[in-house]
Amino acid sequence: MFRRYYPYGSIAGTVVGFAGADGGLDGVEELFNSSLDAEIKEDFFIRSAKGQKTFGNLESFNLEKEKLTLTLDITLQYKLFEELKKAIVDSKAAGGFALIMDSKNGDILAMASYPSFNPNNSSRVLKRNRLMEDFYEPGSLIKPFTIAGALEMKLIEKDTVIDTNPGYVTLSNIRRSEAGGKNFGEIMPDEIIYHSSQVGTAKVAIKFSDDQLKNNLRRFGFGEFLEMDLSLSNPGTILDAPKLYEIDKASMG
Asked: N or C: which end of the chain has fewer CB within 10 A?
């Protein structure tokens, strides 16, 4: 009987997944089950008392399967997993994830999630791939996409001056302030990104119409499934209220 063996255990458990009697049950194993599931053909023969074959063919196994190569670099995967594990244990966090991507071609060089599980352990308790399955607010990472969309739609120009004084702005009766109580004064779009200005981004975001803002985010892939061959990926969500108030736009931007 053939059985899958996973040499890297929990290091890549949440990515690779595992296979059971019914085929792939999680991760890459589940997604590519039809490719990885080999057709095994067994031919038996009978030997005489002297050990000579009397009829039949030599025992053979015909393993016909496709080759599948992941972009993971096991050295980076190991280091990333160990650093992530240490950080979570030291900070007493419930869990976390980390990713290393080749910015030139989009290859995933390492993808770690902790807690993880060892696919070789028959008593394993499945742990989800937090990076692919959970929801997360993009935080300040959204700012460059907001500014880029505004520039492309000519809502602002690259030399447009945005007044962020006095370090906060009130939208829909809610105050939105710069982190740490800072005040960047009058700044241009590139400086908004450089300083990660909350006020500057908010003032640009409210220039979008409701549909413009939603379409801009979708154009950059927000709210869509990733073009990544991993099952259970989460498409995320974009606020789809009938009307967006200024504070909604500022929060989405």
From this structure: N
